[in-house]
Amino acid sequence: MLNKACAVRPQHSSAIMNSIIVKAALFSTVLLLAACGKSPSDEASHGEHADGEAAHAEEIIKGPHGGRLLKDGDFSLEVTIFENGVPPEFRLYPSVGGKPIALKDVQASTTLRRVNGMQNGISDQHVFAPKEDYLRSDVVVYEPHSFDVTVKATHAGKVHSWNYASPEGQVRIATDMATAAGLKTAVIGGGALHETLALYGSIQANPERMRAVTARFPGIVRSVSVKVGDTVRQGQALATVESNESLQVYTVTAPISGTLTARNTNHGEAAGTEALFEIADFSSVRAELSVFPRDRTRLQPGQSVTIKAADGVAQGTGVIGFVSPVGAANQALSARVVLDNSKGEWTPGQFVNADVTVGESNAALIVPLSALQTFRDWDVVFVNEGDRYQAQPVKLGRRDSDSAEVLSGLAAGARVVVANSYLVKADIEKSGASHDH
After folding, report:
1. What share of the chain is helix, strand, coil (3-state, %, to 5)?
2. Tens digit of pLDDT for each residue in 363-403?
3. Per-residue pLDDT tens digits for 224-258
4. 207-280 maps to which CATH number?
5. What is the domain class of 196-205+284-360 according to CATH?
6. Which sign does the torsion angle of CA 121, 127, 131, 134 carry?
């Protein structure tokens, strides 16, 4: 059985890889990816974070400090994000006719509208005050530097305003394409994290579903109507026996439904107290799990268990029904879990892996592990708003086999990609959407 599983596994892995390649190729033809533009500034400042397609559609004029140069008549305002040795901050350089003007004569503000997985996003407000030769906001421009920007500046009694998009690590995906690619989103919130203990073992027939069939009265077997491997139903005739005392022939029937696993008699043989047949009902089986003595105190009946076949195909859940009080010759203890096998997924002798839930704790915010990816040097999830998907850095805490605790970077109620998030990441990386510090 193990050799068969090993022979099948490469084909299964190949199928998975082919599926990933096909999905990635599909995405590469339909996604509009956001990139973070480089800014060649002597001040090591950010310039403009520009979407690749938008950068072609709109020519971005750069100022002398490497930032985006906004113009309205003779009045100009260069917008940079400076982060050399300091937390990222906006710095504005106003000018008229290409010449710097007195900073005290300019009042400026910016509003950054971010995609954060909530219906209306989130907005950051920045106001500016003169410092050295620029206007500075003391509000940190936190990562990611991906937002829709509104800039307002007042000079000489005139109000100037501009709007532009500055996406980074962001992609637009039409709803039908997201569905076709298998992207799934969910609103996240609090939940439970489970501490688990990994165990190993094998599947065995459930002794409670096994029967040895004997003759009611000693006699001679006159007929046998079944063979090993036959499926029998409760009450079905298995053999006939002629009683030694009454000389009457009676029928031996199946006490349960199941599979005939042993036939110990033939026509003409004597039937006594020994078993004529053995029947096993494999619709219920038992996982026999090995337990190290040091883990004995962590286990108790009633704990939830997830069982997976060693070949990765079958999976089921159950609860611990029994933990042996004494060890075997190798000092290992055993824990038993009864599994439903009505679909025939489990076979006696099959090796299995098990995760036993031995503890549980609540977390204010969790995300499934399938939602997590790495982008640049961050752990991220992809938050979703309409047709936009944004890489959102998160700080993670505890985790279990299914979920991770989010300590910061995300709010309860945000909608995130929980299936096939790797496709979004793959296309961002393929597009070269990097952010250089």
Report:
1. 15, 50, 35
2. 999 999 999 999 989 999 999 999 999 999 999 999 998 99
3. 999 999 999 999 999 999 999 999 999 999 999 99
4. 2.40.50.100
5. mainly beta
6. positive
